[in-house]
Amino acid sequence: MTLRSGIAADYFDFLNQLESALCGEGHAWGLLYVGTGNGVLTGKDGATGSYRGGPAAVAEAFTITAIDANRFQVTGSVAGDSGIATVGQPFENERLRFLIKAGTIAFVAGDRFTLNTSPPWTLVRRIGVRNPTLRTGNFSNLGHLFDGTVDTFGSCPVANLPATAGIEMIGPIAVRAITLGVADATNRGVSAFELQSSVDGSTWTKVQGWTGVRWASTRARQTFVVTGNPTAARYWRVLFTAASGGTVLDCSELSFQTDLNADFELEERAQWIVRAPGLDGRKAIFIGAELYEDPARAAYNLNWYGFRFHNPLLGVRSQVNNSGLRNLPLRNGPFGYWLAINGQRVVIVAKIGTVYVSAYLGFGLPYEPPSDHEFPMLVGACGSNEGGTPDATDPNFRAFFDPGRYGLVAYYPDNVWRPHANRYQSSNDNGDNETQGKVYPSAMSTDGARAWLRENLDGSTPLLPLILQHLNVRHHWGEFDGCAWTTGFNTPSESRINRDSAIWLVFQNTFRTSPDNYFALRMD
User: Fold this and answer.
1) What's the pLDDT tens digit per position in 451-464?
2) Residue among 270, 236, 251, 222 at smallest CA distance from 166
3) Model's pTM, two decimal places?
4) Which residues, at least 6 apart from 458, have a Cβ–Cβ distance to it below 8 Å?
């Protein structure tokens, strides 16, 4: 799989880096090797598991066959002859990127690596405003323009006109209508204004102007449709130039719409949606996030949703039959992260101080064929509190592989999202007896049985599949893809486990460091 690690400047920078990783290139997965030499195939930077697809990657199988000790023929099932890879030198084309490193035993002709690629993910939506500081203008009580009610208003003396009020979004989009409101006096309503856009927030372009606006009643709202085809921009504002006769201009409401029928407005909380193509490149696996900021509580979060179908007129939380919110608490400062990506899912791990938060987003490995289980999606993170923080010690603040009551949902063949929870008690680590969905072996805790799982008899570290099942519908759902339960005995977070020619990276369950609170992420 495509494994990437790095340092994010803050939670918003992390979202940008995640988007680049998902959508900027294709992804490689399923590496296997047969041969005499003991060299390895890595990313072109030499990092384990970081081999990748290129920007033009498609769903394709690659065979990389040794011609001699130093050269490999690269052949794609779609691309055909893709060139020669030289040991010790990065191989890179528009479909595939990797490096073959020599080992202590030389390669011989016929040694063979195989791997698969899938296309880049697709960015579907990137709109909205991160926080109130990105709503700007020179009205007094500016926030009242954006609070969604005509009962409050912002003011500007007519003598001080023109006045402005606008937004900075997380991505460019075309505004096709604006809505304005008047307060308690119709002669204080705006009579002339124009909509402006900017790509940089400093140079503004007039999109359309309106004059002669009249208000028939107080506390009214009017929507003004933009004609033509406006250009997408990240910055939008209204320039208010005249009132209807009073000495003060009052505005009780300002909103920006990209479609008159959409249930979201662009000055609202930022939202982000991507579509995963699946391993075959033909799926539509939608994953969305809302950005959440509360500086007073040091909450800077990505709140995740999954949904089978995407309606462009609905907000993330309004999508039909969505998974509900799963919270990944991050920080407004630097932190390290790991991403494990293929065409159908991404696993996120972030290190916030000494706490490891994680999320699993996308398809798992169901025990039924696609004809029976067409959309095996999992959405798991640290809980369902949109304002959660990484310093929480709540019993439900847990990782997806050993979820609290509100941390993980799975999509079943009958089109129902069902929660899975192993823990709930606040006074001990006993199990959740009400939620019928479980993740094993993490659920083996009610009598302390899980703590007895230690090293294997040969001293190696166990890797056990993380299995989801539901007792209420008596259904064995399947497993997480590329994740395994492991013990924390002699394997602290960020340790590596070598098993069956693959390398696994170990992480703990949020702040918990007892040996029964670890999982391993397959790197290779």
Assistant:
1) 778 888 888 899 99
2) 236
3) 0.95
4) none
